[in-house]
Amino acid sequence: MGEISNFQLGVVGALFLSVASSVSIVICNKALMSNLGFPFATTLTSWHLMVTYCTLHVAHRLNFFESKPIDTKTVVLFGMLNGISIGFLNLSLGFNSVGFYQMTKLAIIPFTVMLETIFLKKQFSSKIRLSLFLLLVGVGIASITDLQLNFMGTVLSLLAIITTCVGQILTNTIQKRLSVSSTQLLYQSAPFQAAILFVSGPFLDQCLTNKNVFAYKYSPVVLAFIILSCLISVSVNFSTFLVIGKTSPVTYQVLGHLKTCLVLGFGYTLLHDPFTERNLIGILVAIAGMGLYSYFCTQESKKKQGDLCLGSQIKDKETAALLAGVHQDKESHEVKKSNKDSLV
């Protein structure tokens, strides 16, 4: 029971760290891109990953964690896939309206459920599916304002959905099957994610913004916000791998939509962004869906733990009965042998 309590405490800590760091970096990046005019999102992400790797490397050298070797091919492909998914998401935002981009993010949950059901044989109860549907409806009401379709944007969105889902499923699967921690996996894969975005980032950003990241004039304020964003990103990247490893890709996506609701709320409260009754209704519906999802997941988890405990108790009883039978047979054999010896 102590191990279960520690695990639950670790999950809560990971969720809190993910929410706090993600909301912080969104606010920081919004100030950097909207207010200070630094639009190079993909290049900034590559810097995030490089700083994350350097931080983990220092932590490794100081013996804060042990590096566990992982098959090179697996790490390279995994890192490249995650880097490509980030690129596709940024391209999707560049070629689509904000509303269609939000639809892309919403589609990640049902697509992840479909992939896990087909390939990993994972079962999702009707209650879980209902809570996810309610969540998606709420986030859709709160965040989707327009839907402008175009062929290139649709293709990029589909590629973004596929690569993101597969990458997050692999994050969970690799940690569990290879028995590596989130820190070890992030440490091994971050250089490859950073490399592919560092090479492609300036080109993608120039395609989307018609501006050159190397020709940009970096003021002290912009540099300060870039450094702050990179420092926060260490916590974001670490908590992402931690949450997916301890829970599931679907739970991580649910958490992501909670962050969306919080960002909308913070934007209205702190930045005085426009806020309507539709936004409020959508957020309330989404929070209701998240609450139901958390409740149903907790109930199913307790049921599984109860079944495991019951199975363990039955097994212990069967073992005890077997040992008792062996002991009785041994005593009976010794009595027969004693009787035989007395007759002789």
Automatic annotation (TrEMBL):
Keyword Protein transport: no
Superkingdom of the source species: Eukaryota
InterPro entries recorded: EmrE-like, Sugar_P_trans_dom, TPT_transporter
Subcellular location: Membrane
Record key words, sorted: Membrane, Transmembrane, Transmembrane helix
Transmembrane segments: 38-62, 74-93, 132-149, 155-173, 216-238, 280-298
Presence of keyword Lipoprotein: no
Start and end residues of each Sugar phosphate transporter domain: 21-294
GO cellular component terms attached to this protein's record: membrane
Main location class: membrane
Topology with respect to the bilayer: Multi-pass membrane protein
Pfam families: TPT (PF03151)
Record's protein name: UDP-xylose transporter 1-like isoform X1
